[in-house]
Every structure is written in structure tokens, then in C-alpha cells.
Amino acid sequence: MKPTIALTKGRVEKQFLKFFASLSYDVEPLINKGRKLRVETDDFLFVFAKGVDVTTYVEHGIADLGIVGEDILAEFQPDVYNLFPLPFGECRMALAKEKGKEWPEGKRRIASKYTNITKEYFKQKGESVEIFKLEGSVELAPILGLADGIVDIVETGTTLKENGLVVTDEFMHFSARCIANRSSLKIKRNELAKVIEAFQRGLTVK
Amino acid sequence: MFLPAGSQDEIGQTVDNRSKAYEIFRQVMILRNYKQISTPVVEFADTFTNEYAGMNLQNMLKWFNREGEIEVLRPDWTTAIARALVKQHPSELKWSYQGSVFRRDKDGIESRQAGIEIVHTPVFLGEGESLLTAVQYLKELNIADYLIELGHTGIFDELTAPLQLSDQELDQLREAMHDKRRDVVFTIVNGKASKEQADEITAMVDAFGSFDVIEEYEVKWKDNPRLLEIIKHLKKLATLLTERGVKDVSVDLGRVKNLPYYCGTMFRGYLKETGATCFSGGRYDKLYEQFDESISAVGLAFDVDVLADHLHIEESYERICIIAEEASHAYAEELRHTFTNAIVDIQYTDKDKEKFDRVFKVIKENDEYKVVEQ
């Protein structure tokens, strides 16, 4: 049975395919997959899912390997082998607030998709905050008055800037990572070794 | 009426398989001279959260009793049995148990286990007996396609001893090793030691495999007496298993303990078909230090839910239905006992007769009951 790789849809997918092609793998069926969420190549079965679902599929052994952003791993802490970083998907976690506005004197209100990371960040600082969980467009929260600031991932900072926000602290640096199911790595060691070695060669080349 | 998340009703084959797995386990235990032990399902939280046991209270099902103490549903057998065994006479060496554990960090709140604990026994004898008990039990369950993996807590301890890491750094490094997160392992060690030492410890992330890995590290560690002793010990256990017909034995030299009480060899069994962990365990002499006892202790626990899911029980009984009525029920019951080694059911109608191999009907003739096959 071919190893199964779960791949995060969207930007990570595009960057991974470029990286995968640079390792001399045929990515043609993956590029021209249309709306298919499951694509079989000569060597692997690929499944395409949202980042957090990639970790779920890998944790439960549906997929042997996964390609996922480290922000997802830090937030959800899945029980998987978190093998190594990949040379793409770089971003950082930042605390931001509205430009020109001061933080309130009392308890700060923070909006984020990453409530666990936010909670841990302020815990490390010894500060109690109110955290609001949002699913997207977190930049809106300070503008509309839901929160005093946000914790979110930042790549270029353009979205923050365009919405009138400024970064006040950067505290985690992320990239995409290769994860593995804990049993698969042992049981399918020989089948997975080749692709894992190829990924690592790709890192060295970088 | 609804059930809480993680709880479920179970019927039919699932329950049959689990009962069968427990039955076979008990039979194997009797024949291998284990004595049964059971501990209460409700315990004080401190039994499991103290510094020796080191379990996380957040993952337990807990409440305050009337005295304000925290009580929990048993989250782990080994710790509970250690508490119970310190009161037992040391001449009793081999113990077996079966029952549920309750934790929030696993799929489903309740999971069923069966396991063994061996105390006051020489190291190799205890560990060998644990592993060979696992081999026999899996054989009795007709499970042949599995992998047994060995590890040892002493490898991490020996390699990190010269680094003089703080407790926090040591925990971070152990966590990174547990996740095989090579970049973090390298970064932590490289900040405290030479690049060569960082490379050596990072290499442990990939040091898993079969006898080839054992032989490679026998050579690499030839000048370190402690590591050489460990690798030779693991080789002896692996050889014992292969001599007993286990096809797939491997080591993971980078495996670290996930509970503070492990202190030596660690075991894990995987079912190759699904990748599920079917047993795990190891040496935990340290657990007894909380009772000021110096005891050799080793054991393992089987995940009965995983094993039961994997069981394929062939039902070989003939299914017989006896159709009777209230007045002839006693006669039908008498008749039931004439069919030995068959599943026999008494019903008052024949509407389910398709579910049976043979159907008999009790009829009355001349004031006497007789039976007619349909």
C-alpha cells in the first residue's frame, strides 16, 4: 500500500508542490487535480485538507505523513511526530493593536484564531486577559471595538498595515513542517524513509 | 436521553469480543502463575499526581469529596497497583489485573485494559517474562502480525548527563525527543554543548529500527560502558523475542519516558494492520520509592479495546430454536439441555425461525408433550 500524505490546501499546497517538484517528484497529477481531494501518484496517495484536519488525519493514522503550518501544531498540539521544518510557509506570531491607540489600563481584550497560543503567551508574561475566539479576519476586532488587540500570524505585515494595526510584539517564528503518524513511522519505516530523506536533502540544498 | 462526549453504549460483537479477550487473558494468566489483583475504581487524586507518579490532574475525571479532597476515577492501573502491592508479602511476584481506566486525553473517556505487574524479580527474568506473556497472549488471540518495540530511559539520561541542563531545559529536550523534532533537539543541545554532542543526541531521533540499529550502536557506544550495557541488554531481550518466533522486533533508542516513573526498559506493541498500540509498559522501580521501598518492578498493559476490535471470532455453534408455549415451557427447558454445545433459544412463535439452523416445536398429543423438527 502506498504511503498517504495529507497536504494542507491553499498556500502551503502551492509552496509544497514547488518544493516537491524540486526533489524530482512528478507533481503533474497534483497540479491538475481539479477539485479532487484525493489524488494517487506513482509513489503516494495524497489527500488535501485544511491544516487542522491534516493533523487529525495524521494523528489517527489515516495519513502517514502530513505537511502543515507550525502555527496549527503549536495551537492544537496533536499527538504526532513533528519531524522537521520545511523551507517554505515562513511566518511569525504577533501581538498587534490599532495604530496610535494606547493599551487600556485594565484587563486587555485580545481577539485571535489562536486562543491556546494567546493564552500561553500571556500566561508566560503573568498577565490575565480576556480572549475572544474568532475564525477569520481577526484584524476587524480592534477596528469594530470587540478587542483592544489581536494575536495572529503575520507574513509580510501588509494586511495589518492596511487595516490600521501595528505590531507591538513578535514572539514565535514558524514554517511549514513535516509530521508523521507515530505508528506509521515505525511500521512503514522502509516505505517512508525514501521520501523523508528526500525532504531532508531538500532542506540541505536550501 | 443523551450520553456525554466520549461515552457510548455497546452491543453485540464489540461486547462479545471484549469478553473473549478478557477470558483468554485470564486463562493465560492462570497458566503462567499470575495472581489476580483488583483496586477500587475511585481513588485519591494524589495517588496519581504526586511527584513519583507524575500524572496530569487535568486529564482525570475528578470531584471533591465531603472533606474537600479530590477523588478521581482510576486513570492508571500501574500506580494504583503499586499502592496496593506495598502491603503484600514480597513472596508474591506476579500479578495480573483487568478493568477500565478513565482519562480525558484518550479517545473515549473509558478504556479497558488487562495487564501484568512483576515485582521482586531479577531484571532480565521480569522483563523477559513480561514480553513473553505478551507474545503468548497475542498468540492465543490469533494475532500474528505485530511489531514489538524496545526502548530504554537510560540512553537519554546518559547522553544528557554531561550537558548540565536545568529541569526546564531537560523537559523541553525530552519533549522534543518525544516528538522526534530534530531541529529543536539540535538547537537545545547545541546551545549547551559542542556541535559533535548536539549531532550525537540529534541522531537519536532517527535511531530506530531492527537488529541493524542495535549492531550499529553496539559499535558506536563501545567506549561508553553504561550505553554499551543498555544496548546489550536490549539486544538480549530482542534475541529472546526472535527465538520465541516474534517476526518483527525493533528498538527506538531515541524513545523517552512519558511518565516520570519509568526507569529502564520500555516496551510497546503495535498491530501492523492498523498501527494501533496494543500494549505498552516497562520498568518502573522508581514508583515504589514513594513508599520508601527499593523494589524491582516491571509490567505492561494491553489495550483490550484495540485487541477486541482486531479479534475475528468464528462462531462454530449450531443455532437451535425450540417453539413452545407457556404450558410447555418447562418441557422445552428440559429439552434445551439435551443439546450440548449449541446455542438454544426458546420462543413462543416461529417468526424468527430464519435466524436458526434447526427449529423444533413442542406439541401436545394424548396429554403428552413431544417434539417435532420443523
Automatic annotation (TrEMBL), chain A:
<dbReference type="InterPro" id="IPR024893">
    <property type="entry name" value="ATP_PRibTrfase_HisG_short"/>
</dbReference>
<comment type="subunit">
    <text>Heteromultimer composed of HisG and HisZ subunits.</text>
</comment>
<keyword id="KW-0963">Cytoplasm</keyword>
<protein>
    <recommendedName>
        <fullName>ATP phosphoribosyltransferase</fullName>
        <ecNumber>2.4.2.17</ecNumber>
    </recommendedName>
</protein>
<dbReference type="GO" id="GO:0005524">
    <property type="term" value="F:ATP binding"/>
</dbReference>
<dbReference type="InterPro" id="IPR001348">
    <property type="entry name" value="ATP_PRibTrfase_HisG"/>
</dbReference>
<keyword id="KW-0368">Histidine biosynthesis</keyword>
<keyword id="KW-0028">Amino-acid biosynthesis</keyword>
<keyword id="KW-0328">Glycosyltransferase</keyword>
<dbReference type="Pfam" id="PF01634">
    <property type="entry name" value="HisG"/>
</dbReference>
<dbReference type="GO" id="GO:0003879">
    <property type="term" value="F:ATP phosphoribosyltransferase activity"/>
</dbReference>
<comment type="pathway">
    <text>Amino-acid biosynthesis; L-histidine biosynthesis; L-histidine from 5-phospho-alpha-D-ribose 1-diphosphate: step 1/9.</text>
</comment>
<dbReference type="GO" id="GO:0005737">
    <property type="term" value="C:cytoplasm"/>
</dbReference>
<dbReference type="InterPro" id="IPR018198">
    <property type="entry name" value="ATP_PRibTrfase_CS"/>
</dbReference>
<dbReference type="InterPro" id="IPR013820">
    <property type="entry name" value="ATP_PRibTrfase_cat"/>
</dbReference>
<keyword id="KW-0067">ATP-binding</keyword>
<dbReference type="GO" id="GO:0000105">
    <property type="term" value="P:L-histidine biosynthetic process"/>
</dbReference>
<keyword id="KW-0547">Nucleotide-binding</keyword>
<comment type="similarity">
    <text>Belongs to the ATP phosphoribosyltransferase family. Short subfamily.</text>
</comment>
<comment type="function">
    <text>Catalyzes the condensation of ATP and 5-phosphoribose 1-diphosphate to form N'-(5'-phosphoribosyl)-ATP (PR-ATP). Has a crucial role in the pathway because the rate of histidine biosynthesis seems to be controlled primarily by regulation of HisG enzymatic activity.</text>
</comment>
<keyword id="KW-0808">Transferase</keyword>
<feature type="domain" description="ATP phosphoribosyltransferase catalytic">
    <location>
        <begin position="52"/>
        <end position="200"/>
    </location>
</feature>
From TrEMBL, chain B:
<dbReference type="GO" id="GO:0140096">
    <property type="term" value="F:catalytic activity, acting on a protein"/>
</dbReference>
<feature type="binding site">
    <location>
        <begin position="76"/>
        <end position="78"/>
    </location>
    <ligand>
        <name>L-histidine</name>
    </ligand>
</feature>
<keyword id="KW-0808">Transferase</keyword>
<keyword id="KW-0328">Glycosyltransferase</keyword>
<dbReference type="GO" id="GO:0004821">
    <property type="term" value="F:histidine-tRNA ligase activity"/>
</dbReference>
<dbReference type="InterPro" id="IPR045864">
    <property type="entry name" value="aa-tRNA-synth_II/BPL/LPL"/>
</dbReference>
<comment type="pathway">
    <text>Amino-acid biosynthesis; L-histidine biosynthesis; L-histidine from 5-phospho-alpha-D-ribose 1-diphosphate: step 1/9.</text>
</comment>
<protein>
    <recommendedName>
        <fullName>ATP phosphoribosyltransferase regulatory subunit</fullName>
    </recommendedName>
</protein>
<keyword id="KW-0028">Amino-acid biosynthesis</keyword>
<feature type="binding site">
    <location>
        <position position="113"/>
    </location>
    <ligand>
        <name>L-histidine</name>
    </ligand>
</feature>
<feature type="domain" description="Class II Histidinyl-tRNA synthetase (HisRS)-like catalytic core">
    <location>
        <begin position="23"/>
        <end position="306"/>
    </location>
</feature>
<feature type="binding site">
    <location>
        <begin position="261"/>
        <end position="262"/>
    </location>
    <ligand>
        <name>L-histidine</name>
    </ligand>
</feature>
<dbReference type="GO" id="GO:0005737">
    <property type="term" value="C:cytoplasm"/>
</dbReference>
<comment type="subunit">
    <text>Heteromultimer composed of HisG and HisZ subunits.</text>
</comment>
<dbReference type="Pfam" id="PF13393">
    <property type="entry name" value="tRNA-synt_His"/>
</dbReference>
<dbReference type="GO" id="GO:0016757">
    <property type="term" value="F:glycosyltransferase activity"/>
</dbReference>
<keyword id="KW-0368">Histidine biosynthesis</keyword>
<dbReference type="InterPro" id="IPR004516">
    <property type="entry name" value="HisRS/HisZ"/>
</dbReference>
<dbReference type="InterPro" id="IPR004517">
    <property type="entry name" value="HisZ"/>
</dbReference>
<feature type="binding site">
    <location>
        <position position="117"/>
    </location>
    <ligand>
        <name>L-histidine</name>
    </ligand>
</feature>
<comment type="function">
    <text>Required for the first step of histidine biosynthesis. May allow the feedback regulation of ATP phosphoribosyltransferase activity by histidine.</text>
</comment>
<dbReference type="GO" id="GO:0006427">
    <property type="term" value="P:histidyl-tRNA aminoacylation"/>
</dbReference>
